[in-house]
Amino acid sequence: MSLKFKRPVAVLLATVTAIPLATSVSAQSQGTASSDITVTAEIPDLATLPAGPEIKGIISARKGDRIQVSTADGQRTPIALSDTTQVKNAGLFSSRDKTGTAALLNGLPVTVKTRQWNGGLVASQVTFKKNDAKLASMIHNGTDQRFGEQAAATEALRGRVGDIDNYLIKGTTNVNFDTGKTALSEQAKSSLCQAATQAEATNNALLLVVGYTDATGSQEYNQQLSEKRASTVINYLQQACHWKPYRMLTPTGMAMADPVADNSTPEGKAQNRRVAVNIMVSKAVEGM
After folding, report:
1. Which residues touch 162 (CB under 8 Å, ≥6 apart)?
2. CATH of domain 16-141
3. Are the C-beta atoms of 116 and 43 separated by less than 8 Å?
């Protein structure tokens, strides 16, 4: 089995990196404006600000005193941090984290209580699990021996690969979506965790997630929709199925390209509204 992509292979084989902060703090919390978060005034006493929503997800970007949290449904919410933001370890014996906001690294699953400020959100409390923080720190610093060995193996693997055809696809799981939607069904959630379990049992496996749409709508709309679907799957694999971020190839959206069925029928369109989760192993590593 082979994959055909219209994007450069280098893009597909890049490791997951920090997502640029996509929305200004003065925009709506669920917006997708292209400018960075901009703090234009000193944050007042948080107790005086109206309550905002509680956000659960993974920190997908960090820039100074601002973070972006990506939720399981693909939403990216920018949140400002203040000197009085409480950072806590969750667990049986929860406690204030001594490192403060420095512990809030990319890839860390968090629960954020927010306040409304300056047209956006500011964090009043950020909670995370100690083990999750350790993993995020390992990925960030690359100093843990076990992570270092894994990272070295991954980089060596990529160094041998000049083309996607040099990968063996050990398995592919397709999950489908309703028209124009990015939400995962219960069946899709179950299938994703089964795929992660299968990949975990495969030596040196990486996951490549690719989003697709049917032929309904414009190319620009479908490109964005396919990317959001891929992002939703990535978030669920990492948050609910516990797949390690450093074993994930960069997700991509392919819009209406490479249909698996006829787009002129409702049944065919339903099959094309999908995200493919591919278990990838380098031929070079496979033959070692």
Report:
1. 9
2. 2.40.50
3. no
Rounded (5°) CA angle 40-73-15? 80
- Contact call for residues 58 and 136 (beta carbons, < 8 A): no
Q: 263, exposed or middle or buried, with CB in 10 Å at 0-12, 13-18, 19+?
A: middle
Task: Tokens for 125, please give them.
Answer: 């409390």
156: confidence class by pLDDT, cuts 50, 70, 90? very low
CB 229 within 8 A of CB 74: yes
Q: Is the pLDDT of residue 144 over 70?
A: no
CATH homologous superfamily of 149-286 equals OmpA-like domain (3.30.1330.60)
Q: What does DSSP assign to residue 254?
A: -
Are the CB atoms for 23 and 13 separated by under 8 Å?
A: no
- Rounded-to-integer distance, Cα 272 and Cα 278, Å: 16
Q: Provide the CB-side half-sphere exposure for 177 (13 A, CA).
A: 23
